[in-house]
């Protein structure tokens, strides 16, 4: 079972070899995808398998 993330949680979006840190801003129950915001203008939808918990 994939991890469930919460709104405002920091995550890594794993894109090839470059993981980007973003914030979970929404969850679409119908598609099962999370909206991740990286900056004021950059955001995209990801499935739980494409995300990793952020560890500082």
Summarize the entry for a quick read.
With 56 residues, this protein is mainly β. It is built from no helices and five strands.
Structure overview:
- The protein is built from no helices and five strands.
- It is mostly beta strands and 56 residues long.
- It is 0% helix and 54% strand.
- The protein is globular and about 25 Å long.
- The protein has a five-stranded antiparallel sheet, with no helix packed on it.
- The protein has a single domain (10-53), classed as SH3 type barrels (Roll).
Name a few traits of the molecule.
single chain, 56 residues, mainly beta, SH3 type barrels, five-stranded antiparallel beta sheet
Characterize the main sheet: 5 strands, antiparallel
Based on the structure given, which CATH architecture is correct? Answer: Roll
The coarse silhouette is globular
What is the CA-based Rg, rounded? 10 Å
SSE blueprint and pairings:
Elements: E1 10-15, E2 18-28, E3 33-37, E4 43-47, E5 51-53
Antiparallel strand pairs: 1-2, 1-5, 2-3, 3-4
